[in-house]
Amino acid sequence: MKNYSIQLFIILVLGLVGCKSSNDYLLCDSYENIVRLEQFGRQTKDPLLKKAVQYTLNNIANKRTVYGNIETELLSSFIDSVEDIQGHTPYVRINNCKNQYIGKTKTIIPDVGVINADSIWKDIVLARTIWNNTLWKEQYDEDVFYEYVLPYRMSVEPIDYKWRESAHFDYVTLLDNVKNEPIKVCEFINDNITYLHYDLLRAADLQTYNEYKHSPRGGCEGRSLYTAMIMRSLGLPIAIDEVPIWGCINNGHTFNSLILPQGNCIGFSNPKDLPKGGTLAWKCTKVYRRQFSITKDLPTYKYRHKEPIAAPFDYYDIVDVTTSYDVPVRNIEIKSGNLYKRHIAYLAVPKRDQWDIVAYGEKKMGNYVFKDVGYGYQNGVKLEEQGEYIGNGIVYLPMCFDDKSHLTPIDYPFILSNKGAHFLKPDITNCCEVVLTRKYPRFARIVNFAEKTERYIFEGANKPDFSDAEVLYIITTTPLSREQKYKVNSTKKYKYARIRNIHGGLMIAEFSFCGNNGKNLNGHMICHKILKNDPTIANAMDDNVLTFMNFNENVYNLWLGVEFNSPQQIDSIVFCPRTDDNDIKPGDIYELFYWDNEWISLGTQIADNYKLNYPNVPSNALLLLCNLSRGKEERPFTYENGQQIWW
């Protein structure tokens, strides 16, 4: 009878997720544990425990650990070695060394081949005990416990049978300070979780609870997992939600949500997000929730044996919760045509020169129907405040698997907005000249850095205390986010020169003073006494616009300057505010593309100034400008009324 149970479970596992062979799930030693866990469920007299065991067994088939992104333990050790006593991390040094810690392959280890029944049973009992002791249990349906408190894992992290016990021990005393309102409990705990966000660890492998406890840092996915572990260990029903890719930048976001007794939720990412909930920062394509239960009523599940299913929909453990977050959405239909006989099609958004899948639609009456597709920022967010020339809507590309199981476009990309869908079919019979100044949007954050330098004053003097200072130039309007040269209308010679902010703080990426020959005048750096121990001031004169000095304390009349080797006539000033360095840069090599079923080159150019001119560019085309010399931040755009409109 036991052998029959094992064989039946293997058949169910393979059929459930559509594996090609038992090797895909390392079917070897652990089915004794499946049978043993089933026995625990049969033997217990607690109906909730009995149901909890059955729930776990019913949904374990697709659970797995994924390794092979960034080797986080090694990289974290490296970060430890370069952090100074103030907690500063030399970002450039870290980023330059990041590649040596990136895994070459991705390894998937299914749970069904490695689980330990005794450990899972103990975790189920502990989850049951914690839930039973909460003050809010009676406010929730029992199903909320099974989905958002009970599971022994939450994502694709390594199996850790002790996370619940350890986190409960570490944080249970916090419950002494709160009442029985889930939002207030969640808010208090969230504000007491320490976690440092590192963008360079965005793609890092997920860790165990104790690893995060020892080194609480990483990307947003790591924080959401760590937070969920802590809060579920205290009996709070916490989900992990994800925007796979934003509709205007080249990455996505993972965050937590508290399931409320009424069945709705409230999302949060950072301390102080609650009780109101956090804001989705960028244009939102979709929001998905990772669940423990296998969702068998999805179209992707229905057709799993008939055609390929694209990631991230191929494990049937994420559900669409976009409409829970006040995101503007539309339904859209795409004609299926007769090219490929597929039941499922996909929508992808641009990520540099690639397209990333974010949504799927099922064929109905000859059309692929996509439901609740996001087309912008959360309701209430003003588009004009998000940056310069940001387009209204999100660009999507319809795709499906071809006969060789390769994802391929089935129509032109389109802009989805509150006005509907506008397809970007390039018109090669109606071409125009385009003038390009950037390869990536100038978002509000970068504009704000530049705005902060308005009213900065450049001065020359011959006394070291600048008591005889004369104004050389005042920044009166928001500068561009690149190096710019200001002409000095003075023939006098100065021993000292400086940049000063009469308001609080000082933020500079680069500045220098030039002679009549256009070259930088030699000297050594001098500064306000408060800045003498600030290690970042050297960044303001290191010939690298991506490094910067930033002293944002509420100190007025801060200044940074140069003592020349001898008195000098200053012909001009070179200045750059803190920047993303995505403007056209003289000397760099660029290539412009337009999309027509693939990215088609319009030629390369070496920039000889801060603009690129391309003649004969098809109208109504989706364009992409790539810097072949350096950098990776690139976004597609259209060209409308003489401007780059960013998508």
Structure description:
This protein is of the alpha+beta class. Helices cover 20% and strands 32% of the residues. The chain contains 13 helices and 34 strands. A hairpin with a 5-residue loop joins strand 15 (394-401) and strand 16 (407-409).
User: What structural class do helix, strand and pairing data support?
Assistant: alpha+beta
**β-strand number:** 34
The CATH topology of the largest domain is what?
Answer: C8orf32 fold
State the helix count: 13
**CATH architectural designation of the largest domain:** Roll
Give the helix proportion (percent range). Answer: 10-25%
What is the CATH level 1 assignment of the largest domain?
Answer: Alpha Beta
Unreliable parts = 1-8, 17-29, 81-103
Radius of gyration: 29 Å
Q: Which quaternary structure do these chains form?
A: single chain
Straight-line N-to-C gap: 60 Å
Average pLDDT across residues?
90
Query: What portion of the residues fall into strands of 2 or more residues?
Result: 25-35%
Number of domains as seen in the coordinates: 4
Q: What is the overall shape?
A: globular
Sheet with most strands: 8 strands, antiparallel
